[in-house]
Structures are given as structure tokens and as C-alpha cells.
């Protein structure tokens, strides 16, 4: 009795391998789009947001003072996040609608990271929508919408990109404003001023956030290695047919 061929038993390609294959089969502007998508996936699903955004907020708090620092810091957090999420979301919308292998590999990574098959983002409640985009960014939202809706039409998902980016930016802005308020209280108290400045320096250090993300990634990797592969798991074709 013949066993399964090596091709049938071969594991699906990783995101890196899939991106390399798509890169070799594309040219010109498509390659630029692919590089941009891979960058934003790494930035949002990796340590990028966790390293840069807290530093930016802590730095803005440290160079502002008085009650005016609260709206300033909130505006910086909101504005930066909105711009970044819009850029990453629309870049992902272009890339995931073009590159099937990269999209399928990204979908496998996303479902593995979330521990379940994601539901359509636009069908979730506001709180659940905010949790998803706040944790994984608009790149994940775009991928979820394309796969779960079966539509890779860019125009169909533009409003979702804007809505998800706005929700994420509002969350960051509120947290930034609250952090500025706490810092203001601490600075106005002589006994807390030194501690407040120390906390700001620690929270503003990207190495702290990168280290935390690395620890989480290692734990997830070890957990994934211990779990048996699901032979029935398939990768959807995320492109329009």
C-alpha cells in the first residue's frame, strides 16, 4: 500500500517562503507592494507598534507640561496612529488582493496567533472590533475581511480600513491622554515627581516593549511546536475568482 507522496505531506510554506515565491514571480511596482505588505505585517504583528508608539507617547509627555499636555499627548497618539494605520491598511488591501501565497501564509499565521478562525470583522460588535484592530492592526482587519467575505475588491473594503484605523487611533489617543493626566498629577506632587520621571523613562524605552513581545513570541512558538498539526486545515484562496 503506497503512502502519501512527499508533496502531499509537505507542510504549507511559511510567510517568509511564500513572500519570496511571490517576489520571484512578480516585478516592478508589485514587488514594492509586496515588500511594503511584509513590512507592515511584521511591524503590526511583531514588535513595531509595541516599541515605537509607547516611546512616542512617553517622549511627548516628557517634553510637555501643564494641563495643555493632556490634549497635546492625546492628539499625538491619535494622529500618529490614525496615519500609520491608514497607510498600513491600504497597503495591505493592495497587497493581499494581489499575492495569493503571501495572503494564505499570513492567514495561517493569523489564525494560529488568534487560536481560532477569525469571524468577519465588520460583523463584530464595537468592543470586539476595537480589540482586534488594537491588537493586530488594520493589516489583520483587511486580511480577515478579504478571506471571510470572499471578496478581494479593494473598493469593497475601503470603509473598513478607515473605520478600523479610526477605532485604533481613538483607543491610543484615550490611553495617551490618560497617561498624560497621570503624569501631570505625579509631577505636581513633590514626593512622586522622581518616581513619575523614572516610570516615563522606563515606559519610553523601546527595549522594554520589544523584550515583552519577544517573550510572548517565544511562548507562542513553543506552544505551537507542542501542538499536533491539523491535517484537515486548508488555506483559503483569498483572491477573487
Question: Can you give a write-up of this model?
Answer:
The chain has helices spanning 6-9, 15-24, 29-45, 48-62, 69-96, 100-114, 126-149, 158-188, 190-203, 206-226. The chain is an all-alpha fold and 241 residues long. The protein has one domain (14-226). Helix 3 packs antiparallel against helix 7. The radius of gyration is 21 Å and the shape is elongated.
Number of separate domains:
1
Proportion of β residues?
Answer: under 5%
- Taken in chain order, the helices and strands follow as HHHHHHHHHH
Which overall shape is indicated by the principal axes computed on the Cα atoms? elongated
Q: Label the structural class.
A: mainly alpha
The average pLDDT is 83
- State the major sheet: none
Total DSSP helices: 10
Radius of gyration, Cα only, in angstroms?
21 Å
State the separation between the terminal residues, measured CA to CA: 37 Å
What is the count of β-strands? 0
Compact description:
By secondary structure, the protein is mainly alpha-helical.
Amino acid at each position: 500500500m503506497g503512502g502519501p507522496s512527499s508533496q502531499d505531506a509537505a507542510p504549507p510554506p511559511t510567510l517568509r517562503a511564500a513572500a519570496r515565491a511571490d517576489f520571484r514571480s512578480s516585478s516592478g511596482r508589485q514587488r514594492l507592494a509586496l515588500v511594503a505588505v511584509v513590512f507592515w505585517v511584521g511591524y503590526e504583528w511583531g514588535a513595531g507598534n509595541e516599541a515605537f508608539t509607547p516611546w512616542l507617547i512617553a517622549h511627548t509627555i516628557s517634553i510637555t507640561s501643564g494641563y495643555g499636555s493632556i490634549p497635546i499627548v492625546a492628539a499625538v497618539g491619535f494622529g500618529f496612529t490614525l496615519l500609520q494605520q491608514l497607510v498600513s491598511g491600504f497597503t495591505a488591501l493592495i497587497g493581499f488582493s494581489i499575492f495569493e501565497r503571501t495572503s494564505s501564509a499570513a492567514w495561517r499565521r493569523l489564525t494560529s496567533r488568534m487560536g481560532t478562525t477569525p469571524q468577519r470583522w465588520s460583523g463584530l460588535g464595537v468592543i470586539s472590533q476595537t480589540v482586534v484592530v488594537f491588537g493586530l492592526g488594520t493589516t489583520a482587519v483587511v486580511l480577515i475581511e478579504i478571506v471571510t467575505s470572499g471578496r478581494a475588491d479593494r473598493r469593497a473594503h475601503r470603509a473598513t480600513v478607515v473605520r478600523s484605523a479610526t477605532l485604533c487611533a481613538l483607543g491610543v489617543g484615550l490611553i495617551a491622554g490618560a497617561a498624560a493626566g497621570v503624569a501631570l498629577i505625579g509631577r505636581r506632587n513633590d514626593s512622586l515627581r522622581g518616581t513619575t520621571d523614572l516610570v516615563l523613562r522606563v515606559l519610553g524605552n523601546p527595549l522594554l516593549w520589544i523584550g515583552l513581545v519577544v517573550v510572548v513570541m517565544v511562548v507562542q512558538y513553543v506552544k505551537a511546536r507542542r501542538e499536533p498539526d491539523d491535517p484537515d486545515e486548508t488555506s483559503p484562496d483569498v483572491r477573487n475568482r
